[in-house]
């Protein structure tokens, strides 16, 4: 930035010299007061331009840092949410399987285990991916809803309403 300021001043000085040598008029030296006022205003304008460039650069750097920080925070929140599936949820599912073995038909137990395995398979394969397809997320939701509905019976009722897929032209 200092180099830019020096270059700006040099261009102004060279412009003044060019005007002096290309004009056919005789120049008189300005009074000290006029020179001070002129240099003050010119210096003020140059300083304002330089400060504007510096502050503009800092503003955009800070904005970029803020956006990066927000993205990092969202990624961390997503990882925390995914990690919450693990211990407590698995413990509750195993308790549900224990109860199903005692009081439900064998097919119901197998179906519950298949949904649980499918849910965890998806979580393991997608843990490092940032983007998932809508179909995969709907499948995850269906498996999760099945596990919750089986565990709590009629206390929870979930429904996924899908819109018709748009047809490609």
Notes on the structure:
The protein is an all-alpha fold. It has one domain (2-16, 34-155). The protein is 79% helix and 0% strand. The protein has four helices and no strands. Helix 2 runs antiparallel to helix 3 and helix 3 (106-126) packs antiparallel against helix 4. The model has no long low-confidence stretch (mean pLDDT 80).
Characteristics:
single chain, 169 residues, mainly alpha, 79% helix, rod-shaped
General form: rod-shaped
The main pleated sheet reads as: none
Class computed from helices, strands and strand pairing: mainly alpha
Low-confidence stretches: none
Helix content: over 70%
Can you tell me the number of structural domains? Answer: 1
Distance between the termini: 54 Å
Strand content: under 5%
- Global mean pLDDT: 80
Question: Rounded to an integer, what's the Rg over CA atoms?
Answer: 35 Å
Order of helices and strands: HHHH
| Count, helices | 4
**Based on DSSP secondary structure assignment, what is the total number of beta strands?**
0
